[in-house]
Amino acid sequence: AGRVQQLARVIVDEYDGDAAAVWSSATSGADLMKRLQKLPGYGEQKAKIFTALLAKQFGVKPRGWTTVVGDYGKKGYRSVADVVDAESLAKVREFKKAKKAALAAEQ
To answer: Is 78 within 8 Å of 92 (Cβ atoms)?
Structure first.
C-alpha cells in the first residue's frame, strides 16, 4: 500500500494527477524510460517492459522507443508486453522457460 501511495504522490506532484501524462507527454523513448524509472518500484527492466507494453498494445511509440527497450521491442513472445490472451501468455512462459534452460546449460 505504501508504494501505491508513493506512486500516486508522484503522479499528483509531477503530472497534475494525470497518470497518462507520464507517457503522453514524453518527447522520446529515452525520456519515457527516464520518467518511468523515477516512479517508485520501477527499475530499468520494469521500465523497459512497460515502455514495450505501451508501444505494442497502446500505440505509444515515442521516437527511439525500440532502442531503449532492447529485445523487449522485438516481435515474438518475450514479456508481459506481448501478452494479450491465454495463448500468448503460454508462449511467453515457454520463451522464459527456454531462456532459463539455455542460461543453465551455459553454466
So the answer is: yes
Round to whole Å and give the CA distance between 43 and 102. Answer: 25
Distances (CA, A) of 34 to 27, 28, 40, 45, 91: 11, 10, 12, 12, 30
Task: Determine the Cα angle at 91 with ends 28 and 93, to 5°.
Answer: 90
Distance CA 8, CA 13 (A): 9
Residue 15 near residue 21, CB atoms below 8 Å:
yes
Closest CA to 46 of 7, 1, 2: 7
The CA-atom distances, in angstroms, between 33 and each of 67, 76, 84, 103, 105 are 11, 21, 23, 27, 32
pLDDT digits (tens, 9 = 90+) for 25-55: 999 999 999 999 999 999 999 999 999 999 9
